[in-house]
Amino acid sequence: MLVKVLHNGNCSKSNAVLEYLDENGIQFEIINIVEDPLSVLELKTVLKKLNQSVFHIIRKEEKLYLEKFASQNYSEEEWLQILSENPSLIQRPILIKGSVAMLGRPLENVKFFIEK
To answer: What CATH number did the domain enclosing 43 receive?
Structure first.
């Protein structure tokens, strides 16, 4: 089954997952979320597959988050819009396999997810 990878090329963990998939002959499709940001609807779909709220995928250590968003109290809908407009704030990589998804870290979890 093809694995979709929500990817940011500036992220070492995201690049490491791609390398692992490639080295292990696993077919995957890269979705570069920086060059092609996800819409609010696409984010909702990913969250449903992750079985998580939007708050689970926000990069709270990111400089942009700390400077612009940390002191605010946004709703889930507002965060969906913010992440759609600021994809660097999304945890990555996110792997999607059919109707399920997972955050691609640590790498050991990726191995389990792929084999399952």
So the answer is: 3.40.30.10
